[in-house]
């Protein structure tokens, strides 16, 4: 999972936990706030009552006609005000919950009680508000508070996601730049525009590391190239001397067989050196890619070139093309070598009266070229290492696979071609070359054989 997604999930999870905690404690908090608000309203009404009494007198509420008490309830019994004369020794000043009987019904009220003296008499003022009304207001406040908190959580999650995206943008740029690098030699160090020191340190570290890798690759390429050039000269000299000895009539017959063996060894050594030199030149991009190569035609040319070897090994070679395809910006000579090496291996490690099928067909990715043989196959242990130049793979007959497949992989990578190998040991091997879609003509026919040739 990406770091940005993890940060967003962590932020959302933490806010959800906070929201749950608030939901648990919210009823108590809102109830407390509702009670404080009710008490504040009761105190305000108390102040208004005192002001009315001061301005209009106590007679407005208590007169000889109505007795020594006053009471007033609103229509739904939600609030009441009462005023009565009490004994002079009694003092009450409080706000508390109390039960009152109203029309034979017991109602819970939040009651403010206050005593005051006026005209030599003591009076008790009570102002009450229904607890049911306070609880209803509390539930309404809880609902609005929950909606508000949920909206805040969602808003902050999206805000954090946008902020984390902006914050991690330098890291995204570093990752994308590394993903675009197909080979260490193609990496170009760049400065990172950010004020985050961690990302600056990471970018500088990657630049330094890639510089060391580039230097190591360059030294390896130069070493292979130099050694190949230096070795070719003495090998060619030895080969000429041995050939001269073979052609000399004074050379004893007993030495001729040894000379032939030595020439054969020198020939293998020369092929290895030339293969390493070819790989080095391809990796150093010393070959041009300025040709448009017709892949079906190339397959036919390879088949024509190698048909005598197939006949000598009693191997049937068949070429089938289901579509036309042209690879642009390519090197035909290198592509010929790539396909030739694969078909040559299919002949070399095939069974007597075996078969080889070279098949071209459209695919969802573009165009595929398959080379399938009925040969000895490759073991599953060897399969992951067949393209490595540092591991020597051996066929059942004891002969080494050499650098042929390394050359195949290097040429394919040079042209942006994906290579996949599937094999069942003792039965068959299939090399699959996936060519890019950009080169596939729009008018390709996706059925029927383009050409078929049996050698």
From TrEMBL:
Subcellular location: Membrane
Enzyme class, UniProt record, top EC level: transferase
Keywords, alphabetical: Kinase, Membrane, Phosphoprotein, Transferase, Transmembrane, Transmembrane helix
Histidine kinase domain: residues covered: 226-439
One Pfam family from the record: HATPase_c
EC number annotated for this UniProt entry: 2.7.13.3
Family matches, as Gene3D superfamilies: 1.10.287.130, Histidine kinase-like ATPase, C-terminal domain
Nucleotide-binding recorded as keyword: no
Catalytic activity field: ATP + protein L-histidine = ADP + protein N-phospho-L-histidine
Protein's name in the database: histidine kinase
Biological source species: Rufibacter glacialis
Native organism taxonomy: Bacteria, Pseudomonadati, Bacteroidota, Cytophagia, Cytophagales
């Amino acid at each position: 999972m990406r770091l940005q997604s993890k940060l967003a999930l962590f932020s959302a999870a933490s806010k959800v936990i906070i929201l749950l905690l608030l939901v648990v404690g919210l009823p108590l908090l809102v109830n407390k706030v509702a009670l404080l608000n009710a008490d504040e309203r009761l105190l305000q009404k108390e102040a208004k009552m005192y002001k009315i009494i001061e301005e209009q007198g106590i007679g407005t509420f208590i007169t000889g006609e109505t007795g020594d008490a006053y009471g007033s309830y609103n229509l739904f019994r939600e609030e009441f005000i009462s005023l009565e004369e009490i004994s002079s020794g009694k003092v009450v000043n409080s706000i508390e919950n109390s039960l009152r009987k109203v029309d034979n019904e017991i109602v819970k009220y939040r009651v403010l009680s206050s005593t005051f003296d006026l005209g030599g008499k003591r009076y008790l003022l009570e102002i009450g508000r229904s607890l049911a009304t306070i609880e209803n207001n509390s539930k309404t406040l809880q609902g609005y508070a929950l909606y508000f908190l949920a909206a805040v959580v969602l808003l902050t999650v999206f805000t954090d996601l946008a902020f984390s995206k902006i914050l991690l943008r330098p890291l995204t740029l570093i990752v994308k730049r590394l993903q675009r690098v197909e080979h260490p030699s193609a990496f170009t160090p760049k400065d990172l525009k950010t004020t985050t020191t961690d990302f600056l340190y990471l970018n500088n570290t990657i630049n330094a590391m890639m510089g060391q890798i580039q230097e190591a690759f360059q030294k390896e390429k130069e070493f292979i190239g130099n050694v190949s050039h230096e070795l070719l000269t003495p090998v060619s000299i030895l080969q000429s001397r041995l050939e001269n000895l073979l052609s000399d009539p004074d050379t004893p017959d007993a030495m001729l067989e040894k000379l032939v063996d030595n020439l054969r060894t020198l020939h293998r050594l020369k092929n290895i050196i030339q293969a390493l030199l070819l790989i080095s030149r391809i990796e150093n991009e010393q070959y041009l890619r300025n040709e448009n190569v017709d892949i079906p035609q190339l397959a036919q040319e390879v088949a024509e070139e190698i048909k005598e070897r197939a006949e000598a090994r009693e191997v049937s070679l068949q070429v089938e093309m289901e579509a036309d395809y042209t690879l642009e910006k390519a090197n035909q000579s290198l592509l010929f070598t790539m396909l030739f090496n694969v078909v040559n291996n299919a002949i070399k490690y095939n069974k007597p009266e075996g078969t080889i099928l070279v098949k071209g067909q459209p695919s969802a990715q573009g165009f595929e070229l398959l080379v399938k043989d009925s040969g000895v196959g490759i073991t599953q242990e060897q399969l992951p290492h067949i393209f490595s130049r540092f591991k020597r793979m051996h066929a059942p007959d004891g002969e080494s696979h050499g650098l042929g497949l390394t050359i195949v992989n290097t040429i394919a990578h040079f042209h942006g071609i994906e290579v996949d190998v599937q094999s069942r040991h003792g039965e068959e091997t299939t090399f699959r070359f996936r060519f890019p879609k950009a080169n596939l003509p729009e008018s390709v026919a996706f059925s029927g054989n383009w050409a078929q040739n049996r050698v």
